[in-house]
Amino acid sequence: MTLKYFVISMLFWFFHTNLLVRGDAQSLNIRNESPPFSIEEIVKQFAAKEEEFSQARDNYTYRQTVKIEVLTLNGGRTGQRYFTESDILFDNKGKRIEKVLRAPQSTLRSIQLTQEDLDDIQNIFPFVLTTSSISKYNLHYLGKELVDEIDTFVFDVSPRVIKKRERYFEGKIWVDDQDLQIVKTNGKTVYRVTRHNRNQRFPKFETYRENIDGKYWFPTYTRADDVLRFPGQNVRIREIVTYKKYKRFKADVTITVGDEVTSEPSK
User: In a 3-state reduction of DSSP, which class is residue 110?
Assistant: First the structure.
């Protein structure tokens, strides 16, 4: 996101030496408890599950809503809002498409959404850590923690190297100690700062997953409530993204092709 004035201003062996058991758990709820088997094996197994999850989600349709509000610094409403509701579908050739169902005119004035914001909604908010991507990250084991009665392994995650034009996740992940899939993420997007993006700011966020079809933990809810510290001005935003109505795509599913937008007056 950029501040808006009159002008817009400004594998696994690779990890052997990077996987550390930390005693300095950063939450009172995280138990300083060693896992029942090696950390390397946990990472190997959950990365393989994440690879499977990532491929499976590519074969599901779902409904996505994005709500963004600008608030006062103490949380009051300003009337500045952005909202879209879309179905993520497939066309008759099997290509992934987004069919916009509702898109009232945005009333955002203090900030402007960028392509990076939209990309993060698709790629960083529902963060996955697969066998094909895990070599980009350092993982540090913190301990165990209950998340909605699910016991989890907790890891700190950070990119090893930040390459130009690539965006990464930095924060914590919670891995179900039975299914060995990520059930929660909390963190932010990190990237190389350049002249082009130096005035952009992106919020910290938290994403929860739910078990779909008794097998896959798919993201269903992301929330961000953060103060974006732009040069000369702080702006508080609240962002909520939901992913619902997951349905496995089959040949007999009726697909409506097109991106028809129904505009509504902002309420």
Answer: coil
- With contact defined as beta carbons under 8 Å apart, do 201 and 212 qualify? no
* Alpha helices in 34-141, H assignment, sequence order: 39-57, 115-123
Distance from C-alpha of 224 to C-alpha of 208, rounded to nearest angstrom: 12
What pLDDT sits at residue 120?
95
Query: Is 8 within 8 Å of 2 (Cβ atoms)?
Result: yes
Of residues 147 and 263, more confidently modeled: 147
Residue 165: left (phi > 0), alpha (psi -120 to 50), or beta?
A: left
pLDDT digits (tens, 9 = 90+) for 162-213: 998 899 999 999 999 999 999 999 999 999 999 999 999 999 999 999 999 9
202 and 188 in contact (C-beta within 8 Å)? yes
Token pair recorded at residue 32: 């300083």
By three-state DSSP, how is residue 101 classified?
A: strand
Structure-block tokens of residue 230:
């732009």
Q: Give the per-residue pLDDT at 255.
A: 40
Write down the pTM of the prediction.
Answer: 0.84
Interior angle at CA 216, CA 212 and CA 217, nearest 5:
80
